[in-house]
Amino acid sequence: MRKTRKGFTLTEILVAMAIFALGGVSIVGLFIANMKMSRNAMDASRAAEIMRNVRALVTSSLSRPIALRDDYTVYRFDYPGASLKFKPKDLTDRESTGGSTTAATTPEMRRQLFGNVEDNVLFFALPAKEFDVTLITSEDARRQMMTSLPNDGLSRTGDRRFTGVPPEVYRLVPDTLRSSGVIQGHDFDDRPFYSFDFSIRRGVSRSSAPLEGGGTRKAPLDDLYVVHIRIFKGFEFASDYDGQAQQNKPFFEWDFMVAAAK
User: Fold this and answer.
1) Which of 124-151 are b and which e, b meaning 16 or more Cβ less than 10 Å from the residue's Cβ?
2) Confidence at residue 178, expressed as pLDDT on a 0 to 100 scale
3) Confidence (pLDDT) at 122
4) What contacts 24+ positions apart, CB below 8 Å, involve 233-239?
5) Three-state secondary structure call for residue 124
6) pLDDT (tens digit per residue) in 224-254
């Protein structure tokens, strides 16, 4: 009587291993894709939150004009928790020279790294001319048609705030870093670090009333402005790398309209 063999042949084992390998690769691919989608969703949610905050702050600011002179009005803007002074390079340089990893826990060191409230407050004036991209041939022409913050920030007296190279963005430094100071070995280009800038230009919407002098053209709505916000993540800006070209690109851009009291 012939006995039945027990076990698997080499061919059966190889086929089973191939099936498991294919299944494992597919599962790993799904995990990676899910992690990417989760990160993108987190970035989109954070960007939407920042955009909503900026919109609320700009709307509030434009409702409270500050008349410096009869013919000159400015508005105040500051984003709580954002820093115009902070540069990741300052932290890495301090670490490389043997700086204490706990020194930034003192109020004085936090002020040196991130600035105080007044360091991060800017004033701005609204653009005087209607926006026309074809007429932007110089920096002065741009400033007449568009106000960009923090680049075009003003002081309380209406003078330009930055005489040298202005900060490129508002930095939103996580509370854990802001409160605990330098973290040894921390990656300062980590994804949770977000920053933003925005520009303001006059809107092109027009009223139903015709322009003076007749004709079919309608009068523009002078109190309506368009705000364009750009949101970045990571730290790759020219000011962080000793004048090199900016590498960082916005991952989120949005336009919204606001009315200004004058």
Assistant:
1) bbbbeeebeeeeeeeeeebbbbbbbbbb
2) 47
3) 95
4) 233/43, 233/191, 233/192, 233/193, 233/194, 233/195, 234/189, 234/190, 234/191, 234/193, 235/88, 235/188, 235/189, 235/193, 235/195, 236/189, 237/168, 237/169, 238/168, 239/87, 239/165, 239/167, 239/168
5) strand
6) 899 999 999 877 787 776 666 667 889 999 9
DSSP per position, 9-33: -HHHHHHHHHHHHHHHHHHHHHHHH
Q: Domain boundaries in the chain?
A: 15-207+217-259
How many Å from the N-terminal Cα to the C-terminal Cα in the chain? 106
What distance in Å separates the CA atoms of residue 243 and residue 154, rounded to the nearest whole number?
Answer: 23
Stretch 40-69: mean pLDDT: 91
Q: Indicate the pTM of the whole model.
A: 0.76
Q: Which residues contact 90 (CB under 8 A, 6 or more apart)?
A: 113
- With tokens 């989608």, the residue in question is 37
Q: Residue range 197-214: average pLDDT? A: 74
Residue linked to tokens 């698997």: 8
- Who has greater pLDDT, 183 or 90? 90
